[in-house]
Amino acid sequence: MKKQIQNIAIMTSGGDSPGMNAAIRAVVRTAVFYKKDPFGIYRGFEGLINGDIERFNARKVSNIINRGGTVLKTARSKEFRTIEGRKKAYEQLKKNDIDALVVIGGDGSFTGAKIFSEEFDFPVVGIPGTIDNDIYGTDFTIGFDTASNTATEAIDKIRDTASSHNRLFFIEVMGRNAGFLALYAGIAGGAEDILIPEENIGIDKLVESLRRSKRVGKTSSIVVVAEGDKTGKNVFELAKYVDENLKDYESRVVIIGHIQRGGCPTTFDRVLASRLGVKAIEVLLEGKKNVMVGLKDNKVTITQLSNAIKFHRTINKELLNISDILTT
Ligand code: F6P
Description:
It contains eleven helices and eleven strands. By secondary structure, it is of the alpha/beta class. It has two domains: 7-143 and 265-310, 3-Layer(aba) Sandwich (Rossmann fold); 146-261, Phosphofructokinase domain (Rossmann fold, 3-Layer(aba) Sandwich), CATH 3.40.50.460. 6-O-phosphono-beta-D-fructofuranose (F6P) binds next to loops.
């Protein structure tokens, strides 16, 4: 007979995102609520391999719901990609008598978690935490809302200079290979054009669009560029090409960068993290493993980790359309 789950460990893995602490708090407190024993693993899979594990309790996660980053720290582990590394990780879990693992992270972390869960028949539940919002099986990942608000605020500030100096700004936002962050911040920030990897409009169409903006009386423009976009070699090359082909604008480039990863999580991210954290423990106690909890149509749902990794979220065409219409 299988041993009942009693000791549950939690870790954050991959890039940090605002709201991870709220998820840690929810997982730890839900475990305690159901009379289970929570453990924190520091520095993701890297820390697990090295036995960086501590027994937690409900008070250990006090005053963190409002904090950005992750109190458990995080890492991207090369060693966990090897079978030797994963064996060491399994031995550490056994040594600490841990029966199940909750992993908060993105697709890289879930890929490792899925392989591990299958290799050692170990119960793992994933909670999607990344500012990129690129995980299949959830409409929103923890941190995306905060990061898109941060990017929008940055665009608002840059707009002041753009309009005062009649300038053209290229603003690069994060998102790795996905354009969700760029699309949301671009629409919210009123960008003239939004360049995302999922929809390559081509550099000449961009130049034409900016030329048209001038013709219809716009004196300044903002182009939001997803870091994964392939329209130009990079945002600087893109700006150079446009400058050379569109003499009547003075352009500048801004890369918002890691500011998007930090800061106090929004209400939305805290609530999302709390809902997913509670569900993660509940699905484990129902005997499920190798799944990810997510939010679809405002309902908490479960997706097989293998599907969360295999499939890709698609960009909502309606949002692209809105952006086109509103730049008229
Ligand atoms: O996945 C989150 C993310 O911030 C991406 O948007 C970005 O491409 C990447 O991480 C940056 O990673 P690092 O912090 O390791 O430079």
